[in-house]
Amino acid sequence: INHFPQQAASGGPIGILNVDFIRDVTFLTGGFNATFGDKLSSIMDIKFREGNRNEFDGQLDLNWAGFGGVAEGPLFSEKGSWLFSARRSYLDYVINWFDVGSSIAPIYGDLQGKVVLDLNTNHKLTLLGIFSEDHNAPDRETAEENFMTHFGRQDLIQRTVGMNWQAIWGKHGYSNVSLAATVNNYDEDWYETTTGKYDVKNRTSEQMIKFRNINHFKINKNHSVEFGVEAKRITEKYNNWYAASTNTTGENVPELYLEKEITAHLVGGFLNYIVNPVNRLTITAGLRTDFFSYTENTVISPRFGSHYQLTQKTAINFSTGIFYQHLPLLLLSQNESFKNLKSLKAIHYILGIEHLITENTKLTIEVYQKNYRNFPLDPQQPAIFVIDQDFFNNYQQLLDKGKAESKGIELMIQKKLAQNVYGLVSFAYFKSRYLGLDNEWRDRSYDNRVTFSLEGGYKPNKKWEFSMRWIYAGGVPYTPIDIEKSKLNHRAVYDEHRVNEIRYPDYHSMNLRVDRRFLLSKSNIVFYFSVWNAYNRKNVANYFWNDKRQKQEKVYQWGVLPIFGVEWEF
């Protein structure tokens, strides 16, 4: 994800890159529900599929955004499988051919691989590797064209390798044991567009080794237990420099030079007890404990869940629990006193119903309430919610007094492919807000209130397929720019008396695609034509301060973009 240019284009302040932000967004925003067993719900259930165990398959894909391929096949006489994929973009050339409202695009690519080996009928070993890179280097002229407050260079490299051992212990239990290592490197230099002044040097390296063991044991027909342990070793190295600046409300922020190496450990364990006290009812009760060495915080998290099969087609689910998460090391490392900050705490209450409308159509409805505590707040900016900022400033003091809440309802209708038609409809209405140090409740920066998506397709035969996706989201809150202070400071300064009082225009966009498949004797060729933002909606990306013109202006997201492509399946 290309963090910095998006922030730079907004005219916002330049601060410490919030490296952990996207990784932790599901917890912090309350945007997705979490199930009892310490996993994200099926909305976020992302898995790599296994390769084809029966024969070699391949696919090459070439379109106007990039090219890539997938190859897979059996291993050791169908006792396993392998799968590899690669992708490389040339989107930077595409935007030079089409007027999409921008002349900047990142260059990115990735390699992914998965090998599965059946040691025997009860034991399976899986190896996984993911390698990706993202490069962006807008010069000063490009930054001016795209209304960016900063230009420079950004190189992001991410690598993950892991191994999982899945074991079945007779008829009563199974285990999963995994070991993984992740390395992320961030190499960035940024300069102010208007002055050419060197502003940010970011040399951050993250390394994490993670071990996890999960076990399930069935005691008898009505009773079973789940238990496990988890350990992480995190090492982060910083060689960063940030020029003196001002924060979002115009107060001076001194220069910061951050050069240190931090090593921290997270150790946790959990125990769940699952019981079927009566027919159709399943109850899960459990406990989790975690220790974070950097802050020496130990937390205990009780959780409870239930599933009742009301009829053959309808089920009711309820879950509640306490969830904790440590603050990012990049924030904690700024000041020795930040070690005393409490871990973030969330209490979830979720009630849902699942109903099978037809054999291939499922309706899911969930209502939820989530209460958050211990968020860090800056006394110098009492109305600002620190954790919602894309970048961390150089904070002199933080207090763990922040509160937040999120509540809403989510609805989803999913139709599997049947009679040549498939589709998915989802709707959510929610409210997410926080309490600042000034004792005022405000909407959070991700409070869209309403989101709606409609996607699906029609396959009249084996040769043709027509598909579409339409997305709508309410505008998120933002703080208006203080024009006079921005003129004085030559950068965007926001009105501290109107934090998140105004909303962006609503977002909506439609993507269309047509596939034409040619069936050959031993392979298939698919030509497709796709149009992103088909009706050329001018969605506002952000408002920014144009210091050259001394006025507030807006940046639009990409306009209509046609994509032609061909796939060869063999």
State the secondary-structure class: mainly beta
Q: Residue share in helices? A: under 10%
Radius of gyration: 25 Å
The gross shape turns out to be globular
- Characterize the largest beta sheet: strand count, sense, and whether it forms a barrel: 22 strands, antiparallel, barrel
Q: Please state roughly what percent of the residues sit in beta strands, choosing from under 5%, 5-15%, 15-25%, 25-35%, 35-45% or over 45%.
A: over 45%
**How far apart, in Å, are the first and last alpha carbons?**
32 Å
Helix count, DSSP H or I runs of 4 or more residues: 6
Spans of at least 5 consecutive residues with low confidence: 1-44
| Mean of pLDDT | 87
Number-wise, the strands total 31
Describe the structure in brief.
This protein is mainly β and 570 residues long. Helix content is 6%, strand content 59%.
What does this structure look like?
It is a single chain. The model is unreliable at 1-44 (pLDDT under 50). The chain is mainly beta and 570 residues long. The strands form 5 sheets. The chain has a 22-stranded antiparallel beta barrel. A two-stranded antiparallel ribbon has the order 1-19. It contains 6 helices and 31 strands. It has helices at 3-10, 25-29, 91-97, 140-145, 329-332, 483-489; strands at residues 16-17, 57-63, 66-75, 80-89, 107-118, 123-136, 150-169, 173-192, 198-218, 223-242, 245-246, 252-253, 256-275, 281-292, 297-309, 314-325, 344-358, 361-377, 391-392, 399-418, 421-435, 441-443, 450-458, 464-473, 477-478, 502-503, 507-519, 524-532, 540-546, 551-556, 561-569. A hairpin with a 5-residue loop joins strand 23 and strand 24. It is globular and about 70 Å long.
